[in-house]
Specification:
The complex is a heterodimer.
Chain A: E1 2-15, E2 18-31, E3 35-39, H1 46-54, E4 61-69, E5 72-73, H2 79-88, E6 90-93, H3 97-100, H4 107-118, H5 123-136, H6 142-145, H7 155-166, E7 173-177, H8 185-202, E8 205-210, H9 213-219, E9 222-227, E10 230-236, H10 237-242, H11 247-255, H12 295-299, E11 305-308, E12 311-313, H13 316-322
Parallel strand pairs in A: 3-8, 3-9, 6-7, 7-8
Antiparallel strand pairs in A: 1-2, 1-4, 4-5, 9-10, 10-12, 11-12
Helix pairs in contact in A: 4-5, 5-7, 7-8
Chain B: H1 2-6, E1 11-26, E2 31-47, E3 51-55, H2 62-70, E4 77-84, E5 87-90, H3 98-101, E6 104-107, H4 111-114, H5 121-132, H6 137-150, H7 167-179, E7 185-189, H8 197-214, E8 217-222, H9 225-231, E9 234-239, E10 242-248, H10 249-254, H11 259-267, H12 309-313, E11 318-320, E12 326-328
Parallel strand pairs in B: 3-8, 3-9, 6-7, 7-8
Antiparallel strand pairs in B: 1-2, 1-4, 4-5, 9-10, 10-12, 11-12
Helix pairs in contact in B: 5-7, 7-8
The chains are: A alpha/beta, B alpha/beta.
Amino acid sequence: MKLLEIRNLRTYFDTLDGIVKAVDGVSFDVDKGEIVAIVGETGCGKSVTARSIMRLLPKSAKISGEILLNGKNILKMSPKEMEKIRQKRISMIFQEPMTAFDPLYTIGQQFTEILQKHEKMSKAEAYEKSVQMLELVGIPEAKKRVDEYPHEFSGGMIQRAMIARALLNNPELVIADEPTTGLDVSIQAQIINVIADMQKKFKTSTILITHDMGVAAELADKIIVMYSGKIMERGDLGEIISSPLHPYTEGLIAAIPKLNTKKGEKLHAIPGMVPSPYALPKGCRFHPRCYAKMDKCEKKEPPYVEVLPGRFVACWKVLKEKGALLNHESPK
Amino acid sequence: MSLQNEVGTKEIMKIENVKMHFPVRKGIFRQVVGYVKAVDGVSLTLTKGETFGIVGESGSGKTTLGRVIVGLYQPTGGKVWYVSDTGKYDISSGKIPLRVRQKIQMIFQDPLSSLDPRFTVEKALREGLEISKEYNKKEMREYLLRLLKEVGLSQDYFGRYPHELSGGQRQRISVIRAMSMKPEVVVLDEPTSALDVSVQAQTVNLLQDFQEKFNLTYVFITHDISLAKYLSNRIAVMYLGRIMEMAESEELFSNPLHPYTRALLESLPRFEARKGEKGKKKTLIGEVPSPINIPSGCRFRTRCPYATEKCEKVEPKLIDVGNGHKVVCHLYEK
């Protein structure tokens, strides 16, 4: 069952130096109860994609395309309707939980406010639910901690509280933006477990935004690889890990040192760097760094097509080798 | 791989029971109310040409130890010796000649804050060389140009300011800045953690090239355990200011002994096909205690699944289990 369908999403920013195409024709689905990870390097548009769904963008942003939540286009909704959608149906876990909480109110006060705003609930009931949620995400002595201020929580604990807050109103979709970045490995592992448990318990769909392929591999059912505002490859996690098709995905995977990489063996580096958003290369935007570049790649942007069932790739080389299935989602 | 053979033969630095305690002051009279024991008794020996990895979570004291090794901090206890061809120098005294201090360089985590925003690349690179008075103006320019070329940047970059460079380029400039002093030991403090993976690989390869060419000794400080394994000959695992386990890199990963090392390895997110259910990672409970109030006995006992009464009372000693594999844990006492 499809919960979210994104069709040809484009988010452009009008800046003094020109138009930045942060997200440039992105299409994907999120099924009920699944975790979809969006991975990519700095500037690939993964966070802007997330914020476009929440419509948490500055006024200079121009969004086009369709974002269908249960078949209804949320881009056409009024700000008032949108406010209802946020928190009630879609909620977000931010990268820096310390800044996402109000330092002047206790965790309990902030939770009760959210609960009472969206549901008819007495203060006592809301308070009770806040404690329950903190217990669920594994905060010890939740009854005591609920009355503490955010600064009294440690880094791992506040991230747990953030997850609890995102789940307060049983949302259908949670967007987690780099939920484990900046945490130590042992804490990161705890948070990975909490996110997986919560998904099992609440059957929430999750979009996980991360630059860490390892974290994506631990949690995701499907992976979307983005580069310079476009999806390069999308498919099932296992298939992408075992047989990446797009040269960028291949390169990304080869660039990570694995535990079995030997010392002295050179790491596979992708040459060059991510292009400036003001001067995107013509044709395929990855071609200046690609080992399999053909003449065509410099001239024409490859279409984003389904080359194997459930596997979408935007690459001329792959298209040549595999051909396309019926499902064309090429940009207009 | 001829250089690899030399590793482990010649001692270049000796760190003896180093302690770095920072006072905590409170009140209007700034009275000392306690100490942050960032490094609390670390001993190790570096041999020429090796890469020595130091891994640990935040607050483990790895960065402080790195700063003590280059002489940025004078330790509150213990000694740091640098053994060169010309003699043995006490880095921890803070009174060593400039030409010796130059031989130990550091590359920092965030190149944007370690490069002066008002200096062009050329000025930033020349600063250290001018102090050393080794080259005249023309020679210096030629020398720097050669280095610039070596890291794959053109002459155009001389006139640029740090904000005009990408993260990877900035880090390459800091690499040249350190390498231009012809160091023998370089402390790398999380040199790639601010970079994207594809750029990280470029920087790592570059560092390896320099090491091979000049037979450099690296101290590689990182929280990224896979990267440490990939780069290091030997690895030390730090926790709350102490080394918990130290071994050759292959040995540490194939045969981790300390419960902390084991837990760290279990916690690593792995990029491989998932076996079984997700969210079933074995992990440590709780978080790192404050370095002001270090637990009695073994400092890891509050999070250790094997902690006994003995661990609470007696601080474990360093045990050599053979092959240079050392561990600090009561489980391995005979």
